[in-house]
Amino acid sequence: MNRMLFVLVGLLACGGVHAHKPSDSYLNLSLSGQTVEGRWDIALRDLELAVGLDADGNRRITWGEVQRQRDAITSHALSHLQLTMGDQTCTLEADGLQITDHTDGAYVAIGITGRCLQFNPQLTIRYDLLFPRDAQHRGLLRLDRQGRVESAVFSPARRSLAFDLGETRPLRVAWQYLQEGLWHVWIGFDHLLFLAGLLLPIVVRREQGRFVPAENAGTATREVIRIVTSFTLAHFAALSLATLGWIDLPSRWVEAAVALTIVFAAINNIVPVVYRRLWLVAFAFGLIHGAGYASVLSDLGLPAMALALSLFAFNLGVEGAQIAVAAVFLPVAYSLRRHRLYQYGVLIPGSLLVAFVGMVWFIERAANQTLMPW
Predict the structure, then answer these.
(1) Which of 10-14, 25-29, 75-79, 366-370 has the least mean pLDDT?
(2) What is the DSSP letter of 163?
(3) Where are any strands of DSSP class E within 199-259?
């Protein structure tokens, strides 16, 4: 089998392949002098993995089961969160539990109260919930300092964040969301598969049962730029509209629709329905993919300026990552476009593999079941 196909298979085989909407928790903290108040929303599905909630094993977590594990939940959560002012560690306590809904399901909302021994403008927050279990997990922070609000993102590579309570640094927020946009593509296997489905036929397409190679490198490059940019623009538009609350779609069905876009893109390579202007297909599907990620920012409740900056930086990261993928793929594929090895050893089997994985994901997401241990 061609080496490029091995790369695609390897991407599927390494680690876990997850849904488009990553695992997130939402940490809202308010600081007033030495006093800390807030709320921490953690997904029920994540707490089930961490401490075990479904006592009777019926795949339905009840409020009674959550209450029985109250101490385990709060102990586990607070053991993975630390606030430090200067060189003094603040004390944190849980202040009640409740169930709340986000677009991707039910969450446990943990009330948090705390106090620091003395005020110091240098605040450090350390967060490492779920990172040993899930490298895609993110902790989304909303920090309110007496009306001055900013956001930040915790990740396995960024578990501690330092804040100067005397200033606001919007460029830091933008840089973090730019990085998240990059990682959104690199670790989002459904995003990579969708790109593969669109990029595989860039250098050779099927027309009337035969393969037609791209005329020249310039034509192929322009088509790649159109596809990548139109997808990002649509992704940005849908993400913005959903984050602002102008559209509100059920996360489960958006995720299922994302999987269908992957299937269509792959099948279209084998039995073409759309021959030209694939950038229009990319734009339409970008709207769906953007809606699938919307809750990450909408649930943070950021002020308008911080929200706009985060949206722009995130999508700039998405665009950069897609261009990087295309820049690596295009020269190799273009050099092989006239070879049967690419046409029959990469394009067709690669598209079939992408279609198969996309269909499995669609069934899993539509039925809310796991068919394969990815």
Answers:
(1) 10-14
(2) E
(3) 204-207, 210-213
Let me know: does 279 contact 226? Beta carbons within 8 Å.
yes
Nearest CA among 367, 343, 347, 345 for reference residue 355: 347
Give the chain's length.
374
Predicted confidence (pLDDT) per residue in 40-98, tens digit: 999 998 998 888 888 888 878 888 889 999 999 999 999 999 999 888 899 999 988 99
pLDDT at 190: 67
CA 249 to chain centre: 17
pTM of the predicted model over 0.70: no
Distance CA 163, CA 288 (A): 35
Q: In the chain, what's the furthest Cα-to-Cα distance?
A: 75
Question: Based on the number of CB atoms within 10 Å of its own CB, is 261 exposed (0-12), middle (13-18) or buried (19 or more)?
Answer: buried
Sign of CA dihedral 155, 288, 315, 248: negative
Tokens representing residue 107 in the block: 């969450």
Closest of 248, 250, 263, 235 to residue 363, by C-alpha: 263
Task: Output 174 or 237, whichever has higher pLDDT.
Answer: 237
The dihedral over CA atoms of 238, 240, 243, 246, expressed in degrees to the nearest 10, equals -70
What amino acid occupies position 33?
G
Nearest to 230 by CA among 343, 162, 319, 112: 319
281-332: per-residue pLDDT in tens?
Answer: 788 878 877 776 655 565 665 666 666 777 788 878 877 888 888 888 888 8
266-to-21, 110, 247, 352 alpha-carbon distances in Å: 21, 43, 28, 7
Helical packing angle, 251-270 and 189-199, nearest 10°: 30
Return the exposure string of 22-59: e unless at least 16 CB atoms fall within 10 Å of the residue's CB, then b.
bbbbbbbbbbeeeebbbbbbbbbebbeebeebeeeeee
